[in-house]
Predict the structure.
Amino acid sequence: MTTIEITRASRWFGNVVAVNDVTMAIGPGVTGLLGPNGAGKSTLIHMMSGFLAPSAGTVTLDGAPIWRNEPVYRHIGLVPEREGMYDYLTGGEFVLANAELHGLPDPAAAAREALATVDMTAAADRRISTYSKGMRQRVKMASALVHQPSVLLLDEPFNGMDPRQRMQLMTLLRRMGEEGRTVLFSSHILEEVEQLAGHIEVIVAGRHAASGDFRRIRRLMTDRPHQYLIRSSDDRALAAALIGDPSTTSIEVDAAERALRVQAHDFARFTTELPRLARDRGIRLLTVSPSDESLESVFSYLISA
């Protein structure tokens, strides 16, 4: 069991507080670090990987401090968001260099295995300068895996990947989590976290806002007002019916969208009453879609809750 423990950790840069009094534990399996851009996710990952010292508090791996603890680094693989690569090298040379820096007994074999793991063998002899964004992401992944770390930290790993590459990486990370490795990836995209992470940590404005599986995070949202875009066979009649129902707080006719914009404060009642009201009045529901399920709306709710 490999666990990263963050205890009342803060990190500031001059007068700017990037991470503020965060406490959490990241254990085996796949964990999603969720938050909007600028929330402090990258700073937190850099502290977990030993690139930054906490200004206050502690960050440990199985009880050992990570900052300036070289033996601990052998157990950690990092895929940073920023490129920081050597474009004049081939992908194979880049991964091999990382294998050699780790002092592996057979760095060439380790590099070949890591490249094969991320499906980059065919492009290993090409210069990194010729790689697409998705290929760069995969070769960074290979360099992070070359020493077979028990902890893998990935900062926005799906940026620039096409759908096929994303699915391949998700499958790989899911398998690593099932093998008992500790995998943490950051994202600001709700769909990525929902598909992959068994556990979620939410960071907003440098603070730890929520923790749990995806269902628990969604349950925290249940009592907040929800906005829906609704199209029906008779929008005005449906609006009149919904105005009288206590589950709704506001209804607006959107002429441009030819739809209703409805705000419901009682999520459970609204989802049962809407189809009943439509059926009783002979109204066909054509579209019912949430219009505020973006990640930003989730964060706004969580930090104000």
User: Anything to note?
Assistant: Residues 45 and 153 are 7 Å apart (CA to CA). The chain has a mean pLDDT of 89. DSSP finds eleven helices and 14 strands in the chain. The two ends are 33 Å apart (CA to CA).
